[in-house]
Amino acid sequence: MSIQIGDYVLKSQVLLAPMAGTSDKPFRTLCREQGAALTTSEMVIIQKHLLNTSKSKHRLDFSGEPAPISIQIAGSEADELAESARQALTFGADIIDINMGCPAKKVCNKAAGSALMQDEDLVKDILTSVVNAVDIPVTLKMRTGWNVSNKNAPIIAKIAQDAGIQMLSVHGRTREDKYKGEAEYETIKQVIDQVNIPVIANGDITSGKKAQQVLQYTGANGVMIGRATQGNPWIIHQINHYLKTGKKAPNIPLNDKKQTILKHIKQIHQFYGENLGTQLARKHIFWYATHLDEKNGQTFWKKVNKIKDHAHQYQLLEEFLQQL
């Protein structure tokens, strides 16, 4: 089943979720190499007074990335988000994604992210304003609702389609759930029954078999993988292989994984510079180390987490990987 967003036909059914603090340029590049059909940026608030900050400069660097470039914007007002969408064009956006899925308190306290789902009239205003502000496709990422008693994703899906949204991604949890408990897919199925635009299922998809089960149960066009990629970007290749062949992918040689990890950490250092790069590489090193060897990875992490020099950090990681 192909997924079309505007003029773009995606090459697979597996997409990388936009994750704050994770899906930056080095990680998007890595996940594209593993076969992700679309790698949406981490959430950005594009306002003039923020554009000169280090965080914005790194988050809005898409140079050299292949099309389609999908930039996720966040905000709480229709005019603000429309302006962010127009600004995103200047940074190379081919697709604008609107965040109505983030459950973080600091986002929801500003009535942004999944908090917006409480106000369906505001949702309509925002979606219409953003679609009218740009001449490229606009997509929407959301949750199943605000809480268990208010799973209004099917209603918002219809509003979105009527406003001109060209693809929906739905995380199978409410805002109140955050990341607790298990994702449910019944509401995603109900969303798909309401619209005829592509719908992507998100939440707890951790294997090729699970991806296939979710696609068959919901009728979704594709799957979006988030936290399962942290320390294990190879899962994208594995899910793609299973969906195409019905068989589990051959194990990736450990040496290939080691080379991928070292390349990724080096790219983080180069992209962010030595000081910031060393800080931001830490979480990825933790994820990789515990994915490959949970017990020894925890011990190694305590040692490497205190290192402030990028060259020393890289050297210790190399030594840890050699011992595996």
CATH classification class of the largest domain: Alpha Beta
User: Could you give the order of strands across the largest sheet?
Assistant: 3-9-8-7-6-5-4
Which oligomerization state do the chains in this entry correspond to? Answer: single chain
Give the overall form: globular
Q: What structural class do you assign from the helix and strand content? A: alpha/beta
- Look up the CATH topology of the largest domain: TIM Barrel
Average pLDDT figure:
92
- Work out the count of structural domains: 2
Largest pleated sheet:
7 strands, parallel
Unreliable residue stretches:
none
Discrete helix count: 13
Going by CATH, the architecture of the largest domain would be: Alpha-Beta Barrel
Tally of extended strands? 9
Task: Give, in order, the helices and strands.
Answer: EEEHHEHEHHEHEHEHEHHHHH
Percent helix: 40-55%
CATH superfamily of the largest domain: Aldolase class I
Strand content: 5-15%
Rg from Cα: 19 Å
Distance from first to last alpha carbon? 39 Å
Defining key terms:
12% strand, single chain, alpha/beta, 324 residues, 13 helices, 9 strands, TIM Barrel
Walk me through the topology.
Blueprint lengths: L2 E3 L2 E3 L3 E3 L8 H9 L20 H6 L10 E4 L4 H13 L4 E6 L4 H4 L11 H14 L4 E6 L9 H11 L3 E5 L14 H9 L4 E4 L5 H11 L3 E4 L9 H11 L8 H19 L1 H19 L1 H11 L5 H14 L1
Parallel strand pairs: 3-9, 4-5, 5-6, 6-7, 7-8, 8-9
Antiparallel strand pairs: 1-2
Helix pairs in contact: 1-10, 3-5, 5-6, 6-7, 8-9, 10-11, 10-13, 11-12, 11-13
